[in-house]
Amino acid sequence: MKRRGFVKLCATAVAGVTASPQLLASTGQEYHRYGRVALIDSHTREPVKAAALDVGETYIFHYPFVSTPCFLIDLGKSVKAKVNLQTREGKRYRWQGGCGPGSSVVAFSAICAHKMSHPAPSVSFINYRHGETRFRNSNDEIEQRPGVIYCCSEKSVYDPAFGGRVLGGPAPQPLAAIDLEFDEGEDAFYATATIGGEMFERYFASFHDRLVLQHGRTDIDSVMSGSTELLRLRDYTQNAVNCQA
Fold it and tell me: Is the pLDDT of residue 12 over 80?
């Protein structure tokens, strides 16, 4: 390739990444695109409106598969910082920040990165804590702060304002993030991809029989399409366990 052509190719690539940040995330091979799925209200069956989300509430939806739960949270503050993270295997990726009118809405896989504890209709040991919460940080020191995702199974703690990074406990990597798209014209949210370390194959193998019974179907690894229902965690599970250090 001639030098002029090479320079033009590089400039085009840079422009493409600037226009579409997802391209940057995909260069780390940890950007996994699935179908574009609309988040709909579980009661009205209408698209979830940004103004309808309560700040600090833990919401649940399923994506990218019919049996894989995710958290949706309006943190109540703008989260525009791009965060560089890495998986347990050392694969690097970049989280793109919040979504929605105020860049305050974030979403993560609700499967804990340690032993895959996750919300179920009977009990959920993992949830978001909007208020002040005490936990042991990565230095095994007691810390107190608001706005954390806490897993009571083994005391892993994550920061949803910084891409689900690990703040404390035995989790070996951040929570996998869900890439959200907000359509201003429709005032609607769409899930489009996962970013980070996925654990879905092990999740299916470990909980297969229970997931089949819970969802009433054998194809628990079927990819979501069209829409996915959003509901509050307290409406999804009978017992949301709250613990502190």
Answer: no
Q: Is the dihedral of CA 114, 120, 123, 124 positive or negative?
A: positive
In 3D space, the residue among 139, 177, 171 whose CA is nearest the CA of residue 155 turns out to be 171
Please tell me the number of Cα atoms within 13 Å of 194 on its side-chain side: 26
Q: Six-digit token pair at 217?
A: 């179907």
Q: Is residue 11 part of a domain?
A: no
**pLDDT at residue 186, as a whole number:** 95
Question: What is the domain-level CATH number for residue 62?
Answer: 2.102.10.10
Nearest to 172 by CA among 110, 116, 114: 114
Say if 36 falls within a structural domain.
yes
How confident is the model over 3-27, as a mean pLDDT? 41
Cα–Cα distance measured from residue 245 to residue 230, given in angstroms and rounded to the nearest whole number: 30
Residue 5 lies in a domain: no
Total domain count, the chain: 1
Nearest to 230 by CA among 34, 45, 36: 45
CA distance 119 to 175: 14
Residue with tokens 């695109």, as numbered in its chain: 33
State pTM to two decimals.
0.88
> What is the Cα–Cα distance from 164 to 187, expressed in whole angstroms?
25
Is residue 77 in a domain?
A: yes
